């Protein structure tokens, strides 16, 4: 029987079902259950059926994924904890696979020569995998693991920092550079956005965030889509605690030269600008010039063209009347935002990536149009989503907002953010 309040990730060889690792809940699933989960999938495959997911009557959910016909990943969520959708578990499997390719390369995973050696090598992925598991229900507002868009923060007056980043990347003989603030992409070079896939940007951001304890790092990485078999150097440097700059480059420059010559040359004059970024990050992912209504509890804005996303979860209400109800906890609002995003993209909005769920509302079948707006009223908040050719917006609002005004509030928020930031 699956225990309540668990989230576990299992990795086995696809052909023989040999367990390679288990991460997640402190209480590991018994070997008999792991064997049963593998056995039922193999039984289905042997009879021409592809078992992708199942759900128990107690709310537990299991999702299977086979990658390169070599490794099987199984995500198991128990009932009783935060609600985790099938889409979320499916994306978790994809992100874990991308992280393993990022660290070890596709050849090492697709062509298993020695199982015991692979077990040892996979340990180098555990920190990344654990961070992905934590992000499924964390309170920091990261959504990239679910949306497969880069988690960003939008800076005010970013022109000077953008020039510094472009010049630094050019001096490092690279076209791929990125500035991260507490794990979120604040700025990046043009090629970082145009040549890397959104999934690659997500896992690279997680990797750099996981290396935050190091002042500098020279790390070989394999791009899951762009270069899965040939390693590229990732140079990462801590400019200030919480602020990192990284580039993808070839054999030059050396880590010593980049750290002792290039960092000082291009970043020493921007220390105060970087401190301002840190100060902004304490309060919001939006610049101070953007003012949202007090009755917006949280929002997720996605740029569909660049596959970037910004999540806003205010810590306090600004300008709220005295009779306003208290904010829900940050953890609960982020959980509701994840659930509403899943609800919208699996039922109404076109999802560009492969979706774990093929559910659609009956009324939409047979119609030629695609829904561009939807709303949901719950006991805790009202939710509104809208989609345009460039953006997707998902907003949680107070119950006090009249239902007929949801669209107006959402469109005003979208206009305020895009007008001030060009996002």
Mean pLDDT: 89
Q: What structural class do you assign from the helix and strand content?
A: alpha+beta
Helix count, per DSSP? 13
For the report, how would you describe the main beta sheet?
Answer: 6 strands, mixed
Rounded Rg: 22 Å
Q: Spans with pLDDT under 50 lasting ≥5 residues?
A: 352-360
In the sheet with the most strands, the strands line up as 6-13-12-16-15-14
Beta-strand percentage range:
15-25%
Percentage of helical residues?
A: 25-40%
Shape: globular
**Terminal CA distance:** 47 Å
> Tally of extended strands?
16
| Element pattern in H and E | EEHEEEHHHHHEHEEHHEEEHHEEHEEEH
Keywords: Cytoplasm, Cytoskeleton
Family: Belongs to the fuzzy family.
Subcellular location: Cytoplasm, Cytoskeleton
Protein name: Protein fuzzy homolog
Summarize this, please?
The chain has 423 residues and is an alpha+beta fold. It contains 13 helices and 16 strands.
Would you write up a description of this structure?
- This protein has 423 residues and is α+β, with helices and mostly antiparallel strands.
- Helices cover 36% and strands 24% of the residues.
- Helix 5 (126-135) packs across helix 9 (198-210).
- Residues 352-360 have low confidence and may be disordered.
Q: What features would you highlight for this structure?
A:
423 residues; alpha+beta; 6-stranded mixed β-sheet; globular
């Amino acid at each position: 029987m699956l225990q309540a309040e668990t989230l576990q990730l299992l990795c086995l060889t696809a052909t023989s079902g040999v367990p390679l690792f288990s991460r997640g809940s402190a209480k590991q699933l018994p070997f008999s259950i792991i064997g049963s989960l593998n056995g039922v999938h193999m039984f289905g495959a042997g009879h021409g059926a592809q078992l992708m997911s199942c759900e128990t009557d107690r709310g537990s959910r299991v999702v299977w994924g086979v990658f390169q016909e070599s490794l099987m990943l199984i995500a198991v969520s128990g009932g009783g904890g935060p609600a985790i959708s099938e889409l979320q578990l499916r994306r978790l499997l994809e992100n874990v696979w991308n992280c393993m390719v990022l660290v070890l390369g596709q050849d090492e995973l697709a062509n298993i020569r020695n199982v015991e050696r692979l077990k040892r090598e996979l340990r180098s992925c555990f920190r990344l995998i654990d961070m992905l598991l934590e992000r499924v229900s964390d309170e920091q507002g990261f959504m990239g693991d679910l949306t497969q868009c880069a988690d960003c923060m939008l800076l005010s007056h970013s022109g000077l920092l953008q020039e510094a980043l472009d010049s630094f990347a050019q001096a490092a003989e690279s076209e791929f550079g990125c500035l991260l603030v507490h794990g979120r992409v604040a700025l990046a070079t043009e090629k970082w956005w145009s040549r890397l896939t959104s999934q690659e940007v997500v896992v690279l951001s997680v990797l750099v965030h996981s290396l935050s304890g190091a002042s500098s790092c020279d790390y070989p990485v394999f791009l899951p889509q762009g270069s899965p078999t040939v390693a590229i150097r990732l140079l990462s440097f801590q400019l200030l605690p919480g602020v990192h700059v990284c580039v993808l480059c070839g054999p030059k420059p050396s880590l010593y030269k980049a750290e002792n010559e290039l960092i000082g040359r291009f970043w020493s004059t921007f220390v105060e600008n970087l401190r301002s970024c840190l100060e902004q990050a304490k309060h919001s992912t939006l610049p101070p010039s953007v003012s949202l209504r007090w009755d917006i509890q949280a929002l997720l804005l996605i740029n569909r063209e660049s596959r970037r996303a910004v999540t806003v979860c205010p810590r306090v209400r600004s300008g709220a009347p005295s009779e306003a109800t208290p904010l829900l906890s940050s953890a609960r609002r982020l959980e509701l935002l994840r659930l509403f995003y899943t609800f919208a993209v699996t039922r109404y909005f076109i999802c560009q990536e492969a979706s774990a769920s093929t559910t659609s509302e009956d009324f939409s079948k047979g119609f030629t149009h695609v829904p561009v707006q939807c709303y949901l009223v719950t006991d805790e908040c009202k939710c509104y989503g809208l989609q345009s050719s460039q953006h997707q917006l998902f907003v949680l609002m107070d119950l006090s907002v009249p239902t007929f005004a949801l669209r107006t509030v959402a469109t005003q928020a979208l206009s305020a953010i895009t007008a001030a930031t060009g996002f």
